[in-house]
Amino acid sequence: MKVQVLQEKLKKGLSIMERVSSKSLTLPILNNTLISTEKNFLNLSATDLEIGINWWTLTKTEKEGKVAVPSRLLLSFVNLLPNKKIDVAVKENDLSVQCESYKTKIKGFSADEFPLIPKVGKEEFVVVKSSDFCKSLSQVADIAMPSTTRPEISGVYFRLQKDLIIAAATDSFRLGEKKISLKEEKLINKDYSLIIPQKTVKEIINIFGEKEGDLKVYFSPNQIMFEYFMEEVSHPEVQVVSRLIEGEYPNYQEIIPQKFATQITIEKEAFVNQIKSAALFSGKVNEIKLKVDSEKKETIVSSQSVDIGDYQSTVSGKVKGGDTEVSFNHKFLLDGLMNIKSSEVVFDLNGESGPGVLRPVGDDSYLYVVMPIKAS
Amino acid sequence: MKVQVLQEKLKKGLSIMERVSSKSLTLPILNNTLISTEKNFLNLSATDLEIGINWWTLTKTEKEGKVAVPSRLLLSFVNLLPNKKIDVAVKENDLSVQCESYKTKIKGFSADEFPLIPKVGKEEFVVVKSSDFCKSLSQVADIAMPSTTRPEISGVYFRLQKDLIIAAATDSFRLGEKKISLKEEKLINKDYSLIIPQKTVKEIINIFGEKEGDLKVYFSPNQIMFEYFMEEVSHPEVQVVSRLIEGEYPNYQEIIPQKFATQITIEKEAFVNQIKSAALFSGKVNEIKLKVDSEKKETIVSSQSVDIGDYQSTVSGKVKGGDTEVSFNHKFLLDGLMNIKSSEVVFDLNGESGPGVLRPVGDDSYLYVVMPIKAS
Q1: Which residue from B minimizes the CA distance to A307?
Q2: CATH number of the domain at B125-253, please?
Q3: What is the CATH topology of the domain spanning A256-370?
Q4: Distance CA A251, CA B16 (A)
Q5: What percent of chain A is modeled with pLDDT above 90?
């Protein structure tokens, strides 16, 4: 192999590879990036056997070839190079990298040792706007619970509808659901309900979150693939292939309350700040109390702990329904509020033991259900 | 106690206290800040028994009093308050803090339980420019080695001369020395050679590094005190008192070479980048090699490791003296270069086993001596 590539480009590709290259002790080949040429493209690949990533850039290829080299070492080295042309060559299993006065030879491994990244059929796909899609995913991604006892809730649930993907995640204490618009109505032959590993969803957000173009999402019963095209040429720039989680996702629609006993509409930032303050005095159970006074149109946020002291503050806003008192885990409330981007939030309450529902004002595509801490 | 204080002011004082309030399990009172009134000043104090800090701000005092409260809790709470007036009051040992709708009562301890912060005589002192003094200290502070076997090198050495403080630190592999100008010639009665704990020096840099005014340094045989005055009124704003380390500092002057076999003058940033690159290939002994070619006026930086591969790059610059080859620990070289602020550095070399000396170009107030890794 002998190619020339710009430092900036190679750095970008390697920083994606390095994220998925695992620190595997049992399969050390997984700590490597496979570098190969495909005509006028340089191709990087990495996998942790759950997620596989392919990345391409246009290059001048003088001689084809391939080799696997340690991902972190190569990225660290390329990061330190000036943004100039880099000459990359393979001789046996050594990768030589040269840029101005910097010369190095990195010991690598035969490309044959590198695992294949599975292919996903290209028949069934939908198209979404990359950055919007990632913003939507980030509203549910953190709620999923890595769990070996209930693997089905360790991922993010995807359900395809006519012109929507419904994404949901829960850890059984709270649930987030987001409706993501497709760029056009789906044209695929089959309905898909899938569970995507949390790690995959987080990598998707990282890799595609800043990209302004379209993202294609390919569906198959056992794999999902996300693909982004280069602007200049009709060739993929990044493909992320992931395995899916087997099992049936819980029928979470049942627990979303269809009505409320009390509804408050309040300024989000003030509420967040008061919950953070109350959290300091909430002790080990993380319990903070909300007391809604429907006449005064205000909600008292309070907490107390024998060792630390006690706290109280008041947030005003619209109140519908009757007075109520209910306690929540402050972490769960804050997580939900952080997933909401609007300046005002609606909070439906259902007494001291019924679930609460947080929604952004002026956006019915998102909801966050949270269970109270029952009065003891 | 009953006083009114601006959130911004209190936050500033508490953030200083929180740094020194230790997480002591044996003496939990040390996790607290002592809050007290002194006429129209609010005074905060904290200590870890090695360093003691006093801080003052002007307030309206309605009623005098004092109490000790958990430093981290109070800071976390005050951080979340709006930048408005805060009402602070003490009732028994509870501190009540109120700001707009936020109200809290924090459980505290009797002020009598709080250890006294020692006083340092005000006779013997010198004056330095605060931010410059801290910049100078940061060029040596990290070199000292926290060590129980050789406590005398666990601190930063201070020697007072006519119009200078000479500050030095070593860990026996390298040494940094910085000459710090006094604002006026010293007028004190006695020579002082002191060893200041590394932690104290780091706190001094943190607390006074951004301050533009004068810093007074008070000397005594067992304690040192740093004092900064408020701009508006003739009253101290911060006092830091520290114990000193007993023992005799090594006569380090002996190891500073007075001549060189080879001297190179090179661009610092390029050199730093090449050392960082070489470090990636240096293996477990951290060894990188410099090879000076006096004819070509260039220095080859190289490293290699059986498992990883090998590296080479070239940095050009002035060369005096003969060719040489010498190996260094890349960490020690980088530490020294990072302490140098000039864009060019002079590096005196003394063969493969003699110490090297790094100096900024155009500034003879700083030097950094580093021992080579001897060829095996």
Answers
A1: B107
A2: 3.10.150.10
A3: DNA Polymerase III; Chain A, domain 2 (3.10.150)
A4: 52
A5: 89
